[in-house]
Specification:
The structure holds 2 protein chains of 2 kinds. Chain A is an alpha/beta fold. Chain A has helices at 13-16, 18-28, 75-85, 173-186, 201-211, 225-233, 289-294, 309-319, 331-341, and strands spanning 30-32, 35-38, 43-45, 53-55, 68-73, 90-95, 101-104, 107-113, 121-127, 130-134, 156-161, 192-195, 218-220, 241-243, 258-261, 278-282, 299-301, 323-329, 344-347. In chain A, strands 7-8-9-10-11-18-19 form a 7-stranded mixed beta sheet, sandwiched between helices. Chain A is globular, with a radius of gyration of 22 Å. Chain B has helices at 2-13, 17-30, 35-44, 54-62, 67-77, 80-87, 102-111, 117-127, 130-141, 150-161, 165-172, 180-186, 258-262, 286-290, 300-305, 328-339, 358-366, 451-463, 524-531; strands spanning 208-209, 223-229, 232-239, 242-246, 268-278, 282-283, 308-318, 321-322, 347-349, 373-380, 394-398, 402-413, 422-431, 438-445, 465-469, 472-475, 484-489, 491-494, 502-505, 508-513. Chain B has 19 helices and 20 strands. The termini of chain B are far apart. In chain B, a hairpin with a 2-residue loop joins strand 7 (308-318) and strand 8 (321-322). Classes of the chains: A alpha/beta, B alpha+beta. The A-B interface holds A 165-169, 171, 179, 183, 186-187, 190, 266-272, 275-279, 287-290, 292-300, 330, 332-333, 336-337, 340 and B 6, 9-10, 12-15, 19, 22-23, 26, 65-66, 68-70, 72-73, 76-79, 82-83, 86-87, 130, 413, 415-417, 419-421, 470-471.
């Protein structure tokens, strides 16, 4: 609970005038065209352009770019960047162990699981008694393919807002997978094409199918092969995966099959090899019917790697932060909610992140 | 409630007819009474629930959440029912151990008085999850809009019971929700429900198109010919004071044609064509008729401007006597004397076309005496009236379609088998002064081409895309570039909804004109000339 106005009189100046706090915090981290910059530590978090020192939250391409001189990230994020960009994606790399503090020019930095995709981390930045946590992208729903989010107490919490509207309420992912399996049973003569982003979502969908007892081979688009193999090497069992190529069989072989691929592939000629496919899309956007309709999606699966409205607001409270900076997504609604709750909040205008990706 | 909600969600996104049928039959199989029957009634529009106005819905939700946050949400989603279902605050503990069933929801809504309706609705929304809330709101705001016609729902029932859909159509108007006896019969657990209601629909007899070489095998002397009028098929049934007009699929359309229904002072079942105008003077165009279609009610002015009448061509029943087994020649004789007793401003007889050989009839067909004629009908003199579309007794021999050369403008991705193909085409014709010509869209078609041609057009679309909007691509089309499509269509209506001012009936691609330069495609004036005839 927030304290009432009367008790403010007994608080130090920074508490009394939140603007002072903002100034102090923004000396520690603030947006620059390259990304979020820490002047005392001289590093960027998730920079969108090549920089000297980058701290990277996770491997999605809008957060993890190649060409930095040195990169600090979790081992798995580094591995994923290596798979996507080649081993020479950065001058030097350093692996951050979760929970371990690293001091950069007197600024204490630590990585904590974000529950977004394999290797994803929040980054805590602490200096002269002020702690800011940059969440990167995160979610609170359980996900067997990555470590769960850990709330970190902090003064300023930088939250994403991809699904920062009260309309976004993700159902349990098991329910969504059950609908996919029900449809597969209802239409055994057709194939089900599941669009899912190549890093994270695709593997989560496959793992959910396995956890639901689906033990037939899953057919995957070539764009998923390396990353899925990497997930398997990290001990995440995805079962038998087969390439969804024509060489592996005729059209009839895909009868009743579940095929996973990047969403863009299904509009492509690639998809012609499947018999009368039902197009499915695993994404938080599928909550909105019109989105599904416009995309020609017949079976929307509301499975998201981002926090929904309830998770966002619960997480903000859990961090105990006195101030919230809101980035990429629908900032205004989350800022409004913070105002109603008496929490200082402002949008952090960072450029270069896709608010669409999920 | 969740199974119903899930059904609605799936149906609205499933484009294929077979897919919808599977979803419906599976639902009927899995769900028990009375829920499945209530779902059926909701789909066919036979469920009576007092409507809740959108403003009331908005008030209920903004009493429960910050109006600013609601505003952001509604702006984003764009649909009130959907927004409310998503943002409705969920109070932990208020949700019962199990969500209410469709039967419970309908019972509560039907029992609610006008004044406590909103409170009852709010209580139901409190007790339900997101999908169920959406379904509840759809029930009370009227109109499910899920792309399932009553006809399709009846076909699903027929598939479910492995019977002919005509049997469902014949029974339908005597049944009421939740259709327990109907489901019991379809599942083989009870006898076919006996229909004691008056003025029921009799499933109609349909014709087959004349195919190549069909006529050579037939003797002209065996057949009567009538003009095929461009109206809508209608069945007029009056019995024991009940008067009904049915569409050819058994939908009750009486409400839209009170002028005609009022003139049904008889006890009989007539089959014929619904048209507008005065049969003694002039028959209106299909455009005129359209003013009267798809309306639940109709103003006196509309009735005066476009009076409805029926051009009768068969008599199925008179008094208590069923004539359907009699040969056409005999029914026609009875029909002629029967129509003579009716109000001549509302009923007339479909005239015969005199002919002795196919060649004569062919000439007449090509040059009909009236613009509202779209061909000829052939009926075997000795044919009984049977439901469905038997091959042989009745033929339709339509006028050749109109064609126009148009330029492909936009292409949209298809569904199912065609989801990776650009298979829905919007095409346009030229308008504007010389030197300033531009294309104006005149229609959309998604069939008429072969699989091979589809591949070719798809490639053309991909190679000539200039812009993309979601699943739609804008294709290069100017005086020097563009794919010309020969489009066939059955007729043209005036339209205020389209920029071009015309709307095609039944357009399809008849030929790909790879050879034809885009600037030689037709102009809008060519189409306008068809309108003015």
């Amino acid at each position: 609970m927030r304290e009432s106005a009367v008790t403010y009189n007994r608080l130090p100046a920074a508490e009394l005038y939140p603007i002072l706090r903002i100034m102090r915090a923004s000396d520690l981290l603030h947006p620059r065209p390259e990304g979020l910059y820490c002047p005392p530590g001289d590093f960027f978090i998730d920079p969108v352009r090549p920089v000297d020192r980058a701290l990277i939250t996770h491997g999605h391409s809008d957060h993890a770019r190649s060409g930095h001189r040195s990169v600090l990230a979790t081992r798995q994020t580094l591995d994923i960047m290596g798979l996507r960009y080649g081993e020479d994606f950065a001058g030097t790399t350093q692996a951050a162990r979760l929970g371990e503090t690293i001091v950069l020019n007197g600024v204490s930095v630590s990585f904590h699981p974000a529950g977004h995709v394999l290797g994803s981390a929040q980054i805590s930045v602490e200096h002269q008694g002020t702690r800011i946590v940059a969440s990167g992208d995160y979610k609170r729903q359980r996900d067997a393919t990555c470590a769960p989010f850990e709330p970190i107490r902090c003064d300023v919490f930088i939250t994403e807002a991809t699904f920062g509207l009260p309309v976004f309420r993700h159902p349990p992912d098991t329910e969504e997978i059950a609908r996919l399996l029900k449809s597969a049973a209802q239409f055994p003569e057709r194939s089900h094409l599941v669009g899912a982003y190549a890093l994270g979502k695709a593997q989560r969908v496959m793992r959910l199918l396995r956890d639901a007892g689906y033990d037939r081979p899953l057919y995957i688009h070539g764009a998923l092969a390396k990353l899925s193999e990497y997930y398997q090497s990290q001990g995440i069992d995805l079962g038998r995966l087969e390439p969804a190529t024509v060489e592996s069989g005729g059209k009839d072989d895909f009868t009743g099959a579940i095929v996973v691929g990047p969403p863009s592939a299904f509009a492509d000629r690639w998809a012609r090899r499947f018999p009368d496919p039902i197009s499915c899309f695993a994404s938080g956007w599928m909550r909105i019917r019109q989105r599904a309709k416009q995309g020609g999606v017949e079976l929307p699966l509301i499975i998201s790697d981002h926090a929904d409205w309830d998770e966002l607001t619960a997480t903000i409270k859990e961090t105990g932060a006195e101030e919230i900076w809101v980035t990429h997504g629908r900032e205004e609604a989350l800022v409004r909610w913070c105002e109603l709750e008496g929490i200082a909040a402002r949008p952090l205008h960072l450029v270069g992140y896709e608010d669409e990706g999920d | 409630m969740n199974r119903f909600a899930e059904l609605l969600d799936r149906l609205v996104l499933t484009p294929s007819r077979n897919g919808k049928l599977t979803l419906l039959t599976d639902y009927f199989r899995a769900v028990e009474d009375p829920d499945r029957g209530l779902a059926l009634a909701a789909i066919t529009g036979d469920l009576n629930i007092a409507a809740v106005k959108p403003a009331m819905l908005r008030m209920l939700v903004t009493e429960r959440m910050d109006p600013v946050l609601f505003g952001y949400s509604y702006d984003y989603v764009g649909d009130l029912a959907e927004t409310v279902s998503l943002v409705w605050p969920q109070t932990p503990g208020k949700i019962a151990n199990r969500e209410p069933t469709l039967g419970e929801v309908v019972a509560k809504l039907q029992a609610a008085s006008r004044s406590d309706g909103p409170k009852v609705l709010a209580g139901l929304l409190d007790s339900a999850g997101i999908s169920a809330r959406f379904a509840i709101i759809k029930l009370v705001t009227g109109g499910l809009r899920i792309g399932v016609s009553a006809r399709l729902a009846k076909q699903a029932l027929a598939d479910f019971g492995k019977i002919d859909v005509a049997e469902i159509e014949e029974l339908w108007h005597g049944l009421t929700p939740p259709y327990t006896a109907l489901f019991a019969w379809l599942e083989g657990k009870a006898e076919k429900p006996r229909n004691t209601a008056l003025a029921l629909f009799r499933p109609v007899m349909l014709s087959n198109p004349v195919g190549d070489g069909d006529l050579e095998k037939l003797d002209p002397a065996d057949y009567a010919a009538e003009w095929k009028w461009d109206g809508i098929r209608v069945q007029a049934v009056a019995e024991g004071g009940i008067r009904r007009l049915y569409s050819r699929t058994g939908d009750d359309v009486s409400g839209a044609f009170p002028d005609l229904a009022d003139a049904m002072h008889f006890s009989a079942t007539l089959d014929g064509e619904l048209l507008v105008g005065d049969p003694r003077e002039a028959t209106g165009t299909f455009s005129d008729l359209q003013q009267r279609l798809n309306r639940k009610t109709v103003t006196p002015k509309m009735q005066q401007q476009y009076p409805a009448f029926m051009r009768c061509y068969d008599l199925l029943q008179v008094g208590g006597e069923d004539l359907r087994a009699l040969p056409f020649r005999e029914r026609r004789g009875r029909l002629e004397s029967f129509v003579g007793t009716l109000d001549p401003s509302r009923f007339d007889l479909s005239p015969f076309v005199d002919f002795t050989d196919w060649q004569t009839l062919e000439e007449l067909r090509r040059a009909p005496p009236h613009p509202i004629i779209e061909g000829v009908m052939l009926k075997r003199w000795d044919s009984a009236y049977v439901a469905g579309r038997p091959k042989g007794p009745w033929f339709k021999w339509k006028r050749d379609p109109h064609t126009v050369d148009a330029v492909l403008m936009y292409a949209q991705r298809g569904h199912g088998k065609r989801s990776s193909f650009y298979s829905d085409y919007t095409f346009g014709v030229w308008t504007g002064a010389e030197g300033e010509e531009e294309l104006v869209p005149v229609g959309k078609a998604y069939f008429g081409f072969t699989d091979e041609e589809l591949k070719q057009i798809d490639k053309y679309v991909r190679d000539n895309t200039i812009e993309r909007f979601g699943p739609v691509r804008s294709v290069r089309a100017d005086r020097d570039n563009g794919l010309v499509l020969e489009v066939a269509f059955e007729g043209l209506n005036r339209s205020t909804r389209h920029k071009s001012g015309v709307a095609m009936r039944f357009p399809r691609i008849s030929r790909l004109r790879w050879d034809k330069p885009a600037n030689e495609a037709d102009r809008i004036e060519t189409l306008q000339a068809l309108l003015d005839r």
